[in-house]
Amino acid sequence: MAADPLKNIRVVLCETAHPGNIGAAARALKTMGLAQLFLVAPERYPDPQAEWLAVGATDVLRRAHVCASLDEALAGSAFTVACTARPREVAVPMVAAREAAARIVEVARTQSVALVFGNETYGLTAAEVGKCQLLATIPADPKFSSLNVAAAVQVLAYELRLAAWGATVRNRSGEPPEHATHEEIERFYEQLERSLLEAGFLNPRNPKKLMARLRRLFGRTQLEQEEVNILRGVIKTLAHPKKKQQR
Amino acid sequence: MAADPLKNIRVVLCETAHPGNIGAAARALKTMGLAQLFLVAPERYPDPQAEWLAVGATDVLRRAHVCASLDEALAGSAFTVACTARPREVAVPMVAAREAAARIVEVARTQSVALVFGNETYGLTAAEVGKCQLLATIPADPKFSSLNVAAAVQVLAYELRLAAWGATVRNRSGEPPEHATHEEIERFYEQLERSLLEAGFLNPRNPKKLMARLRRLFGRTQLEQEEVNILRGVIKTLAHPKKKQQR
Fold this sequence. Notes:
The structure is a homodimer.
Chain A (H helix, E strand, L loop, with lengths): L8 E6 L4 H13 L4 E5 L7 H7 L3 H5 L2 E3 L2 H5 L4 E5 L10 E3 H12 L4 E5 L8 H5 L3 E4 L11 H17 L16 H17 L8 H13 L5 H15 L2 H5 L1
Parallel strand pairs in A: 1-2, 1-6, 2-3, 4-6, 4-7, 5-7
Helix pairs in contact in A: 1-2, 1-7, 5-7, 8-10
């Protein structure tokens, strides 16, 4: 019962022909925090081409489980999902990748889940799809919907990570930026207006007109505290150059 | 003023070292309905390796614009977004890929947008990032956040397609499945209950108990009209086998 649902998700590649795709899939998994790779009857594995494309994910690649059959790769999974570009005749429900990821992560919080990808050329057979409980498909251009298998693994792994951990982004310090408060921004506008009036840039009879446009501009940017301080420094310096002050 | 915002989005690859990545990026774009590829000083282009990995997207690959500088590739774009794995020192705001895609598509409904990717090894320089108005980042495992550049193009292109057209999935006939109506489902349950009672499977004094469990089971599946018909056929046949009827 892993605290990290991604650790309960195995990705199964069926009869992959090109070892480069196995390596690239290993890298795709590792970037998203997944680590369980299962290979059903790979054409060439291990292979230097796989190592080369795995780049820093050779650990995931080398720990891959090689299986003789899909049944062997699915053993122990409580939920099995097949990823396919093609609408199927089989009576397995189909959902978009995003919804599939949400369902997978929900199950993976307590049980093992398998996500299955087919061969580069012929995909998954009807029998293979029939062993799965859900079909996941990546919305694509219907005129050219064939993603490379490692690219499809990357998209699904990405959706799984977002389903598990959300789409939060941290800035350099690891903390979300401190947005400026209303008062800080108002003081900035007051200073700006005063300075522009003094400098003769605003029409004293209608100073609000240009200020409204400037407010619209800055209002769109969600100013951070530090940025407001910088802007105020800029205005102060422009209005009262340091050289002049030093005289 | 394209009706399809994806046609207004160009993807710019800066100083790509491996031609295979250029080909794979072309394929990634085409699967998502994008077609404008710009290459800033690629190491090798054209190249058979790029053709090989583009598979059915050689049209996108061959129409790629080769530029000497990033400025040349950005000319005419009203919104420029840099995709990067690394938090940056530069004063460009950073958002997750999904939010970036929403903003890009909004602008691309009326104007040209550029999405910029860096070299495989050293990414984008600070000067290159500085030419962009927004940083987009793909949420990844902080311990190993380096996606292959074509894989990153695939994820962003996927998010752009979803932002433009939504995550709808169509079944084989191209029509959304016809969900069964409440009445159809109720008639199915009535038939099921009657048949199970007749068959002695339900406790006549408390037939509702097992029916409630069966309702919960089928209730989760969002039955389609056709499926209800199939289920009713199954029950009818089981309760009154055709062989028996023929006798």
